[in-house]
Amino acid sequence: MINTKSFYELLKKNGVDFFSGVPDSLLKNICAYFTDNVAAENNIIAANEGGAIALGAGYHLATGKIPLIYMQNSGIGNAINPLLSLVDEKVYSIPILLMIGWRGEPGIKDEPQHIKQGEVTTKLLEAMNIPYEILPEEFEKAKLVIEKSIKHIKKSSSPFAFVVRKNLFEPYELKNKVKTNFEMKREDAIKIIVDALNKDDIIVSTTGKTSRELFEYREELCQGHQNDFLTVGSMGHSSQIALGIALQKKEKQIFCFDGDGAVIMHTGSMGIIGSLCPKNYKHIIFNNGAHDSVGGQPTIGHSIDFKSIAKGFNYKKVFIADDKKSLSENIIKLKNTEGPALLEVKINKGARKNLGRPTLTTIENKNNFMSTLK
Ligand SMILES: Cc1ncc(C[n+]2csc(CCOP(=O)(O)OP(=O)(O)O)c2C)c(N)n1
After folding, report:
1. pLDDT digits over 26-36, tens only?
2. How much helix, strand and coil, in percent to the nearest 5, is found in the chain?
3. CATH superfamily of 186-373
4. What is the residue-averaged pLDDT of the chain?
5. Which residues lie with the beta carbon below 6 Å from any ligand 1 atom?
6. Ligand 1 atom nearest 113 alpha carbon
7. Statement: residue 298 has pLDDT above 90
8. What dotted CATH number matches 4-164?
9. What is the pLDDT of residue 346?
10. How far is it, in rounded angstroms, from Cα 56 to Cα 62?
């Protein structure tokens, strides 16, 4: 295992002291170290991975230095465009160090959304002609790899990737935790909302713990999962899945259970919802100001105004709930109003330690869900 401080010091010694990316559970410890020890303007959690590459490119244009851009391998897709059309050596040839968490590494058990991505992670890098190294576990070996890679980047002036296996970094407990003082966590809010919905209402839930908590609550209630589409991957796209359904199934109410990080990742999607104006579309954002599912790293969720954003995007109504009482009242209002409408639920981050994962396969989930929609 690699000590986070030693890793950071080594990067700094080699001239790398600007970081941006979207957090990943495999990179949780090193990201927490950056948060505690790097000035905020040199450690920027981006809206999405493509944005992080572009931010790094801007940093390089302004300083001539090499940025480190971190992401889960799920985010490679978001990064491909600027990797190939901005920083690639055939375009602007910008040196960027990538650090990619390898979920779904072949031979290591992982969730369905990570399996294909894990299989093709190194192949995608090869297809993009981005040289890479899988970071060794021993610090001395990693040190050699890092020094060699940075020399290579400086010479070639183009991207280079470190692929990071599970448990590479030693644990590091974040000290600068942002605390909020709301009454509920996401699971409390999900329970109140599910209790208030009608038997026929449809839910499309976002990636991470939202879908896991919804699944477990349905189990607890013995209700089955046929009304829920659990978007286990595809961060930021639940709202458009829900839109695709809402436009075809006008007789049903469609509720999208979204996360602040997911909405921020692809906010323009809200504009498409507003422009098509489906009356049966009900968007709920569980705003905990964090990427809670991958370690609780901060988002800008609590410092932006989702209400004004939704209004600007032509949503017909916006409700805000920040405790159990206002949630119980506003979920009824959301049900009874014409959409598209938004309910922002302000919550603390955090989840149960013993939270499980869906026990149905993704294909079973899809088939059951499609039977409900028939
Ligand atoms: C494209 C992409 N980037 C990163 C991830 C890793 N990831 C999974 S869940 C998550 C956090 C989601 O945050 P938010 O939507 O606010 O929901 P929360 O976990 O806080 O409930 C991240 C970053 C991913 N799955 N896909």
Report:
1. 999 999 999 99
2. 50, 15, 35
3. Thiamin diphosphate (ThDP)-binding fold, Pyr/PP domains (3.40.50.970)
4. 97
5. 22-24, 72, 74-75, 78, 186, 206-210, 233, 235, 259-262, 286, 288, 290-294, 299
6. 25
7. yes
8. 3.40.50.970
9. 98
10. 10
